[in-house]
Amino acid sequence: MAGNIKLRQGTRSTHHAANTTELPVIRWLLTLIAIGFLGVMLIMPLIAVFAKALEGGITLYLDAIVEPAAIAAIQLTLLTIAIAIPLNTVFGLAAAWAIAKFEFKGKNFLTTLIDLPFAVSPVVAGLIFVSLFGVRGMFGTWLIEHGLKVIFAPPGIILATIFVTFPFVARELIPLMHSLGTAEEEAALTLGASGWKTFWYITLPNIKWGLMYGVILTSARAAGEFGAVSVVSGHIRGLTNTMPLHVEILYNEYQFTAAFAVASLLTLMAIVTLVVKNFVEWKVQQQLGQSE
Amino acid sequence: MSIEIRNISKQFGSFTALEDINLTVPTGELVALLGPSGSGKTTLLRIIAGLETADQGSILFNGEDTANRNIQERQVGFVFQHYALFRHMTIFDNVAFGLKVRPRNSRPSKEEIQERVHQLLSLVKLEGLANRYPTQLSGGQRQRVALARALAVEPQVLLLDEPFGALDAKVRKELRRWLRRLHDELHITSVFVTHDQEEALDVADRIVILNKGHIEQLGTPEEVYEQPKNAFVYNFLGNVNLFHGRIHEGRVQIGSLELDSPEYVQTQDTQAISYVRPYNIEIERVDKGQDFIPARILFIRAVGPIVHLELKREDNDDLVEVELTRARHQELALKSGEVVFVKPTDVKIFIPDDYSI
Fold first, then answer.
1. pTM (predicted TM-score)
2. Alpha helix (H) residue ranges in chain B
3. Same domain, A265 and A168
4. Do residue A24 and residue A73 come from a single domain?
5. What is the ipTM of this complex?
6. Where in the sequence is the domain holding A67, given as residue range(s)?
7. Considering only alpha carbons, which residue of chain A is nearest residue B72?
8. Mean pLDDT over residues A20-36, rounded?
């Protein structure tokens, strides 16, 4: 099947080239506009971030990064990622499994609900948690009585991040699991494999690249989340600042070089994520092609 | 192991997939569940396997109720229509899977698994392909791997869901003959689902014909083909011509044609449907009277040993399909557009359910 599709695409594209070739001038012009736009909107800012960060020399750059408040922010961001990823992986897997492999009432509603964090503004997401766990929130009194702090503390930041990044793994897995169907799992069951072994030996290997992709998107968003985290953080330097919040504070205090130094770290993380993402994306495509 | 199906019913929402099915498959028999799509045959097979649960009724293996046995404990080998091979495993690992996932105390040693897998691969004639992946195999090869994988766990019952449905005609024919031989060697109680009458007639010891969730007829291939119980079975088991007519005291009137039907002597003026197989129609160039009907030849297909003709009755414009031997066709030297005379020689008459008293 996959072979057929490719063949058809191939024929179509040659047709295309033969029938609708533009004048060389127009082709060049269009290419130039595209490259120009890309340069102004993407490449220049990228260079600017690093140029600005290294403006004062490498020592100043390193100082900005190893400063205690910066270290604390980096640590908090990494901690948030470290907690959000496993939880969202498990949630996402469970939700995708339920939606892709079973028929039940309210399935469409659940699918829509999973998308909610995408649709809602991050600020609103943050406010939801304030209204739940804040001093005047639903559980506020109970939390105070038990000496627990969620809002303006790391737990709130982690909760908000989990909320915002919840859909990524599930969204990635639902169509993949759907296309894989249930036949292989059923075959494993009839061969005597337990539910757990079936998941471990059959389901997981089949979805691993899709799962990886979801995890990468989750970590990228978790690292960069600003709005929701900003609402619940309280901006206590060295305690409840994540990297994006730290950048904003530095920027507001006119410490441009330091702000850009930390920002360059975030950018680097993003670039690495993109490279890994592209690799995984390619793997997923390969697998989908195979499954046809 | 024998399979006993007792009063099985299954509903999907408002759709009745199976209604009060009773069926016994004796040990060692190869039974075909035959029916059009939506007849419930696959659902029944999945219920036997434990992949689906019945709303009512029970499945007995060797007289023992399987209600409390989950899929893993039923010891059924299941072969899926689209093979359902584990795509990320080699052929060897696919076949070995059922042995490898056994709990430690009943798991064979590595060497035993190796030996058993190679035995099975040679049984299905795929010795050299142990290290390939499923995508590198043809459809027929994949289905044989699926069969080897199902046999690896030494199942008591083998269930096959349209096993040859996704293969091309030639491979399908080869593979079903091969399956028959394999069954004669292993004597595993087997049930296979198909919508292809030819396949069922060719392979099975007995055929169960299903329609709309219930059994229409059960019998050997000869029985169901020669003595179809009702119109549905007759219609389903091969090409037929259908003539509408009326029946009165053992005489059927179909247009200008009148036939005897002794089994309906008691029937008073009722609508009846007559079925005639295309090879049970005679053709003559001249009118020989006696029930010959004039018909115009629309189309002749003279490929292979049997010549197919399509005709239109002159008296009522009904289409008639006729099959002649090549010799007879040459003798008559028919051309399309000609008017000839046809006469059904063997007519099956059924009174449609709606009109029966």
1. 0.77
2. 41-49, 91-100, 110-123, 139-152, 169-186, 197-203, 221-226, 231-236, 326-332
3. yes
4. no
5. 0.80
6. 58-291
7. A192
8. 87
